[in-house]
Design goal:
The protein has helices at residues 21-28, 34-42, 72-75, 79-85, 91-99, 129-140, 165-176, 252-259, 273-283, 317-326, 330-337; strands at 4-5, 8-11, 47-48, 51-52, 64-67, 70-71, 101-104, 108-113, 146-147, 156-162, 181-189, 196-200, 203-208, 211-216, 225-234, 238-245, 292-299, 309-312. With 342 residues, the protein is α+β, with helices and mostly antiparallel strands. The strands form four sheets. Strands 7, 8, 9, 10, 11, 12, 15, 16, 17 and 18 form a ten-stranded mixed β-sheet that branches. The radius of gyration is 21 Å and the shape is globular.
């Protein structure tokens, strides 16, 4: 008799939103034959949020995917999942764990992700948040937290994780429905023509040498909307801006800021050579790091418990030093966030 794994339940992550079901299985269960996958769909053994699906069904973040028992070969995970499962904590990881927790209750936890730490592993990312928290949970005998949204490698700040499947589903739906509000602080090159407003430009991924980049694409791009408000300026040289994304596209704030003619200082990916040189002039240092921080997340009552949550993350060292140098008052940024439509 062929050995089989039991029923699995997965929560669709933000990074997989919009992906076809059959492509999702190809990525996560590459040994599952296409014909077998189609039979499982036709027989109703694979379900999304309890309903029948087809291979062409588009997935949404936060949905619950039921995976029926699969034989050992088909159920074998992809290599990156093995790496997450077998991750071993380092002294650097243990130091991080002691200082980055912002909030924890029976439903979720919030951490202050440092810049340079990936959320998930990949071919170039051996150390990542998912692996660290999975290894920590294994050591303590607790459950592995669920990833429900994303934060770019170079971006620091508040990152939420669900502590059970039900909360992961609720948080995913709330992110998808834009019920959860996120506020980012950034230092931009120059000052926008309007001190507040909305940037709207559809974005799509484009393959380039060494990876991918995001581009404005009116035909194939997905809707992307970002509210912004300038808090303070350094004359016309730079501006402290609070961004509130209304959609969650990859690199959305970075691309929209560059499109407005005010790229984020330190953003070599979306700034041209002249702008990169100007970064160094403003900061008085060569190749400054990216100045983008997920300052605050507001979760409404009922999503992850009876009470609403309002969680903020302190600035990373390079931004804190710059704010002090330029005389920016942090409370002004928090006050500016309150002016956005809720």
């Amino acid at each position: 008799m062929t050995e089989k794994h039991g029923v699995q339940t997965r929560i669709i992550e933000e990074k997989d939103a919009g992906m076809r079901l059959d492509r999702w299985f190809q990525n996560h269960f590459p040994n599952l034959k296409f014909g077998h996958l189609q039979r499982l769909c036709r027989s109703g053994q694979i379900r999304v949020d309890g309903g029948r699906v087809k291979g062409a069904t588009r997935l949404e973040a936060g949905q619950e995917l039921r995976i029926p028992p699969l034989d050992f070969e088909a159920a074998s995970p992809v290599e990156k999942n093995i790496k997450t499962k077998d991750y071993r904590l380092t002294e650097e990881d243990r130091s991080l764990l002691r200082g980055f927790l912002l909030h924890e209750d029976e439903n979720l936890m919030a951490v202050n992700k440092p810049a340079g730490l990936a959320v998930q592993g990949g071919s170039r990312q051996k150390r990542h948040l998912d692996g660290i928290l999975t290894a920590a949970a294994k050591e303590s005998g607790g459950q592995r937290p669920h990833l429900v949204h994303r934060l770019d490698l170079e971006t620091s700040g508040v990152f939420l994780l669900a502590k059970n499947v039900a909360v992961a589903r609720n948080l995913g739906a709330a992110f998808r429905g834009r019920e959860i509000h996120k506020f980012y602080w950034a230092l931009c090159l120059g000052v926008p023509e309007l001190r507040e407003g909305e940037i709207t430009a559809p974005l799509a991924k484009k393959a380039v040498r060494g990876g991918e980049t995001m581009v404005v694409d009116p035909e194939e791009g997905k809707s992307a909307r970002t509210l912004y408000r300038v808090v303070d300026t350094l004359g016309r040289r730079a501006s402290w801006t609070v961004f509130m994304p209304l959609t969650g596209r990859t690199h959305q704030i970075r691309v929209h800021a560059a499109l407005a003619g005010c790229p984020l200082i330190g953003d070599d990916k979306y700034a041209d050579a002249e702008q990169r040189e100007a970064f160094s002039d403003v900061m008085q240092q060569d190749a400054p790091p990216l100045f983008l921080h997920a300052r605050r997340i507001v979760v409404p009552a009922g999503v992850a418990g009876r009470k609403a949550l309002d969680i903020s993350a302190p600035l990373p060292e390079h931004m804190r030093a710059a704010w002090k140098k330029f005389g920016f008052a942090e409370r002004a940024g928090d006050e500016a966030a309150e002016e956005f439509p809720q």
